[in-house]
Design brief:
The structure is a homodimer of 248-residue chains. In chain A, a hairpin with a 5-residue loop joins strand 1 and strand 2. The longest helix of chain A has 33 residues. Helix content of chain A is 67%, strand content 2%. Chain A is built from eleven helices and two strands; from the N terminus they run H-E-E-H-H-H-H-H-H-H-H-H-H. Chain A has a two-stranded antiparallel sheet with strand order 1-2. With 248 residues, chain A is mainly alpha-helical. Chain A folds into three domains: 56 residues, Multidrug-efflux Transporter Regulator, Chain: A, Domain 2, CATH 1.10.1660; 34 residues; 140 residues, no CATH class. In chain A, helix 2 crosses helix 3, helix 7 runs antiparallel to helix 8 and helix 8 packs across helix 11. Chains A and B meet through helix 4 and helix 8 of A and helix 4 and helix 8 of B. Chain B binds a DNA duplex (30 and 30 nucleotides) through helix 1.
Chain lengths: 248, 248
DNA sequence: CTGGACCTTCTCGTTACGTCAACTTCTAGC
DNA sequence: GCTAGAAGTTGACGTAACGAGAAGGTCCAG
């Protein structure tokens, strides 16, 4: 009924977590309705990752199961935070091993580098000569950055891309609320450099799939990311910035 | 030298992860410089949570340790996501057990409820009669919400408060980048309801410590949160919205 | 009566060591 | 040379939550 193996039930009997209502002379364990209800509570807490011994205490003593849950929650949170750190370290290690370190000398949100002039020509070809002026605006901001600040910005950008990649590979839609929340960071990163309105930000989507350098930089983190990222940019422009796309 | 116990070294010898350079006739294990270097790599990978058997394969085969790391990273990410879900479930359970369910019928970002008129009077007393007009603006938005949407908004608000509480209790400063990122969600939640500019948002900080109902609602989630939350609001207004506080 | 399904107890294996216990070896001080 | 103490050694058991397998008993339908 519960989908548990008999072995598990025996284990719970052994450790005293769930005793059968009676054990027949042939050794068979018999469980009643009360045991089923208790089992449901056990399975629920087990789902939450609470250790069996604690489950027993919570169900038996029942005095202040909330406090126990709170402590358990604190454990979970610190465990998650630790994982977060470890993931970041693994990311840095992978980046090191695959020689992505040079990227940290470039600047992310505008995708600068030695190829900066290429990007500018591309932008002007796509959006008109006026668009190139934003480069001056960005320069006004980044010009005063130290090398360290450049690297920080690049690292932050890569972290964001990796979080987006995580979302993509777990099947999350680019217009889901969770992704749009992440895109807020991207939009603000862009806004830091030049005053992109909804339409400009929407147009930016073409760049991440169409511009070879931009695309390559993103693909280095996740080969499947660029088109999904472009969708996310467009979704953010429409859903959060109120951009109304032109009808075809 | 490494801080490991001798037991651990013996274990690594047993499983073949780190063999001594030679074992003397008296059984003593002797390690050389090469072993120390290998140990350093072992400890690093162990820090990342890689299982010892995999560490052995990575260090020995060395063929495509990056791929192994990537797989490990995927494991970590899904583990973290699972933890995230569990934490959310535990939160809901605690809320249920402590009878916080009624809160879901209120609306979070403006802190409405039966005490709505009190809040309005408080706001008008603090910021002048004009400020009360924002209530009409909020009504225009929320008036069309279904009950479900109200509950969703309330739940999202509580989730945000809990994430802020997590940050606070782990010693993170209210003006750190990570917290300001979280505050983006809050600011956008507020913006959904009325057009708060930098100054208005900055002023809002007084409300979360000064208004009894607001304060109580937040304290129910974390008794120490209100003043820290107020600091975070002010920090966000200054650092991300460009608000310039008046000098005293 | 029989085959198969289902039950039992017992034991080992899993991870990465901590913690005894019992014993040997090395080293410093007298 | 003797001795105490520090440090090394090899087992063996315990940890959490069961899975897997061995060896055997019980129940039921045909």
């Amino acid at each position: 009924m519960s989908g548990l193996t008999s072995r598990t039930l025996r284990h719970y009997d052994d450790i005293g977590l769930l005793r059968p209502v009676r054990t027949a002379s042939n050794g068979y364990r018999w469980y009643g309705r009360r045991e089923l209800l208790r089992l449901q509570r056990i399975l629920f807490l087990r789902e939450l990752g609470v250790p069996l011994t604690q489950i027993g205490r919570i169900l038996d003593g029942d005095r202040d199961g909330v406090a126990a849950l709170r402590r358990h929650r604190a454990d979970l949170v610190s465990h998650r935070d630790r994982l977060e750190e470890i993931i970041a370290t693994v990311d840095r290690t992978i980046a090191d091993l695959t020689g992505q370190a040079h990227l940290s000398e470039e600047e992310f949100f505008t995708g600068l580098s030695a190829r900066r002039d290429d990007l500018r020509r591309d932008v002007e070809a796509r959006y008109g000569a006026g668009a190139g002026e934003h480069f001056a605006s960005a320069d006004a901001v980044t010009g005063r950055w130290t090398r360290e600040e450049h690297e920080q910005a690049a690292a932050q950008g890569r972290r964001l891309l990796r979080r987006l990649s995580d979302a993509r590979s777990s099947g999350t839609a680019p217009d889901s609320a969770a992704v749009l929340d992440l895109m807020t960071e991207h939009y603000q990163g862009v806004r830091l450099l030049w005053p992109a309105d909804a339409a400009a930000y929407h147009a930016l989507a073409d760049l991440v799939t169409g511009n070879p350098d931009q695309r390559a930089m993103i693909e280095e983190i996740d080969p499947l990311l660029p088109p999904w990222f472009a969708d996310a940019i467009r979704a953010y422009a429409v859903r959060r910035l109120g951009y109304v796309p032109a009808r075809e």
